[in-house]
Amino acid sequence: xxxxGFTLIEVIFSIAALGxxxxxxxxxxxxxxxxxxxAGDIQDAxxxxxxxxxxxxxxxxxxxxxxxxxxxxxxGSAAGQYxxxxxxxxxxxxxxxxxxxxxxxxxxxxxxxxQNGKVLxxxxxxxxxxxxxxD
Amino acid sequence: xxxxKLMCKRxxxxxxxxxxxxxxxxxxxxxxxxxxxxxxxxxxxSDWSDAYYRAEGEAARDFAEIDAAVSRAAGDDALPFGQAxxxxxxxxxxxxxxxxxxxxxxxxxxxxxMGLHVTLALDMSKTPRLHATQWYQIQK
Lengths: 135, 140
Known about the structure:
The complex is a heterodimer. By secondary structure, chain A is of the alpha+beta class. Chain A has one domain (about 10-130). Chain A has 2 helices and 4 strands. A 4-stranded antiparallel β-sheet of chain A has the order 1-2-3-4. In chain A, α1 crosses α2 (about 60-70). The longest helix of chain A is centred in the N-terminal third of the chain and has 51 residues, at about 10-60. Chain B is α+β, with helices and mostly antiparallel strands. Chain B has one domain. Helices cover about 60% and strands about 25% of the residues of chain B. Chain B has 3 helices and 4 strands. The radius of gyration of chain B is 32 Å and the shape is rod-shaped. The interface of A and B includes residues 28, 50, 53, 101 and 123 of A.
């Protein structure tokens, strides 16, 4: 039986090749972990934005919705820019009055969830504060 | 002879290493595929809510227009309310069902494949106020 072993060069080369292949394969797991975290962040941000929008749209008036969210409208009008901290996200609300001759008030509403200055989810909609009686 | 070949342990470690690498590769690709699916799912949910709330915004804008039309019709002394409202809504291109003291106004708004069907009711005899009675999502 041939009892000659491998040379040092052969051993070094095989370990290096194995190391490179293992590094590439392990990188797949790291990439999967990062992607999972990003997907989770996007979903959480979406939930945060949706809950804020639903609170505002579902309330009787925009000012009441803001009060439920713990925001005090500055000068009686709901229009303005507000920020909320929701878990690890900063939720930025932009509320503006849309021009038009309506009995109530039509608001344009934009809600964004940011994390480290990066927008993860945003929703744009409108809410009409009616309440006009025609008697 | 075959038995001898099977019993021979030469190269067994190489086979083990190759198997280990294969298993690592399969699990790595599976993990990455799952993560990418989660990402795509999140993106899809995000796109869906985006379209839904845009359509809801358009529905709210139409609601405001109809409310203004009802207000103008209520202030029109020259015509009966029903006739005035019908004229106002015709101008907006919205159909209305008028009956006695009230009206039911239905309209749809679309944002891509996402649509909303809204029915507004106005009962002048009970609550003289325009309010939504139906607000549901439809998909193309």
